[in-house]
C-alpha cells in the first residue's frame, strides 16, 4: 500500500488492564493523513494527547509506556503492533485508564476487529524508512542488528534456562497475512514465581490464565497449553513490532534480535533515529509497485526504493 491509511469506522471496546486490574474503555477513531497515532488519555479533569512516538516513551520496565504532561498510557505494544502490521498510519485513540486492556494477552482481538471494520485508504502517500547501512546495538547477551532489506523482516532468538522454553527462534516477513497467522495469536507470558511476587506486591492485578501464559517449574500451567510450540519467541516478535512502530515510519529493513525486551528495543529505536546516515525516507508511486511486482523477488523493491530517494 503506497497511501497512508486509517480505520474505515470507529471501534469501541473494553477490558481489564493486566497491571492495574481496572476495566478500561477504549475507542479507536479514524483520522486524517499526517495525524499519526495519538492517544487521548482521559484523566477525569482533563484530556491529554500523547502521540505514539519514541520521544514520548517514559517507561519500559514491565511494558512500553507513553507519557506526556503528567499523563501516561501503558502496555501499548500489542495494539501498536497490530496497527503497524495492517498499515494503519493515522488513528485517534480515546482511553479512560492507565493502560491498554490486555484482552487475551495477544493481538488477535485487534486484527480480527480491523479485518471486520476495514481499512480506509487516504490521499497522502506513505513514507518508508529504508535502511541503507547496518545499525547494531549490543549489551551483554542482548543484541539487535538491522540491515538493508527490500521488505520488513524480523528474526528473533530467545534463550531461557527453563525446560518449557529453552532456545527458540523465528523469522518472518511482516505482512498483514503473516502477522495474523504467525504473530497475532501469541500471548504474553510469565513465570509463576514472578507472578506470585508481583501479586504479593500489588502488581499484575489483572493477570490471569485468561490473558497470560503462566510457566511453572516444569510445565505450562494453562489448561489449554500453547497456541504454537514456539509461542514465547513469537510473542517477543509481537512486542518488537509494536516497539519499533514508534520510529514513526514503516520500515524497509531486516531486524535481527537476540534476548531483547522493551527497554533494549527502545534503545535501538533511539539509535536508529540518531543515525540518519544509515537510512533514508522513501516514497513509492503506482508505477514503482507495478514494476516491482514484475521483477524477481531478489530485486523487487530494491529498484523502487533507490529510484525514489
Order of helices and strands: EEEEEEEEHEHEEEEEEHEHEHEHEHH
Average pLDDT, all residues: 92
> What's the total number of strands?
19
**Roughly how many Å is the radius of gyration?**
19 Å
Report the CATH C-level class of the largest domain: Alpha Beta
Chain-wise SSE layout:
Blueprint: E1 3-7, E2 11-16, E3 23-30, E4 37-42, E5 47-51, E6 57-59, E7 65-68, E8 71-73, H1 77-85, E9 91-95, H2 108-117, E10 119-125, E11 127-131, E12 135-139, E13 142-147, E14 152-160, E15 166-173, H3 176-183, E16 189-191, H4 192-200, E17 213-215, H5 231-244, E18 251-258, H6 262-273, E19 279-283, H7 286-294, H8 302-306
Parallel strand pairs: 4-9, 11-18, 14-18, 16-17
Antiparallel strand pairs: 1-10, 2-3, 3-9, 4-5, 6-7, 7-8, 11-19, 12-13, 13-18, 14-15
Helix pairs in contact: 1-5, 5-6
Amino acid at each position: 500500500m503506497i497511501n497512508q491509511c486509517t480505520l474505515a469506522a470507529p471501534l469501541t471496546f473494553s477490558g481489564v488492564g493486566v497491571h492495574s486490574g481496572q476495566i478500561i474503555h477504549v475507542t479507536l477513531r479514524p483520522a486524517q493523513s499526517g495525524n499519526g497515532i495519538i492517544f487521548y488519555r482521559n484523566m477525569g479533569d482533563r484530556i491529554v494527547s500523547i502521540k505514539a512516538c519514541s520521544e514520548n516513551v517514559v517507561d519500559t520496565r514491565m511494558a512500553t509506556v507513553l507519557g506526556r504532561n503528567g499523563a501516561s498510557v501503558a502496555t501499548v505494544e500489542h495494539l501498536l503492533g497490530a496497527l503497524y502490521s495492517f498499515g494503519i498510519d493515522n488513528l485517534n485513540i480515546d482511553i479512560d485508564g492507565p493502560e491498554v486492556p490486555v484482552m487475551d494477552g495477544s493481538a488477535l482481538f485487534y486484527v480480527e476487529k480491523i479485518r471486520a471494520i476495514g481499512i480506509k485508504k487516504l490521499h497522502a502517500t506513505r513514507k518508508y524508512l529504508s535502511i541503507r547501512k547496518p545499525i547494531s546495538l549490543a549489551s551483554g547477551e542482548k543484541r539487535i542488528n538491522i540491515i538493508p532489506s527490500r521488505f520488513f523482516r524480523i528474526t528473533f532468538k530467545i534463550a531461557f534456562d527453563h525446560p518449557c522454553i529453552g532456545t527458540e527462534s523465528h523469522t518472518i516477513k511482516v505482512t498483514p497475512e503473516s502477522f495474523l497467522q504467525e504473530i497475532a495469536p501469541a500471548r504474553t507470558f510469565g513465570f509463576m514465581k514472578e507472578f506470585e511476587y508481583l501479586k504479593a506486591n500489588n502488581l499484575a492485578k489483572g493477570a490471569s490464565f485468561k490473558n497470560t501464559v503462566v510457566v511453572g517449574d516444569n510445565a505450562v500451567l494453562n489448561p489449554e497449553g500453547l497456541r504454537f510450540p514456539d509461542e514465547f519467541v513469537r510473542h517477543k516478535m509481537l512486542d518488537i513490532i509494536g516497539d519499533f512502530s514508534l520510529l514513526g515510519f514503516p520500515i524497509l529493513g531486516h531486524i535481527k534480535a537476540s534476548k531483547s525486551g522493551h527497554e533494549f528495543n527502545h534503545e535501538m529505536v533511539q539509535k536508529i533515529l540518531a543515525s540518519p546516515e544509515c537510512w533514508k525516507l522513501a516514497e513509492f508511486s503506482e508505477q514503482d509497485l507495478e514494476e516491482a511486482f514484475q521483477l524477481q523477488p531478489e530485486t523487487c523493491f530494491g529498484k523502487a526504493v533507490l529510484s525514489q530517494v
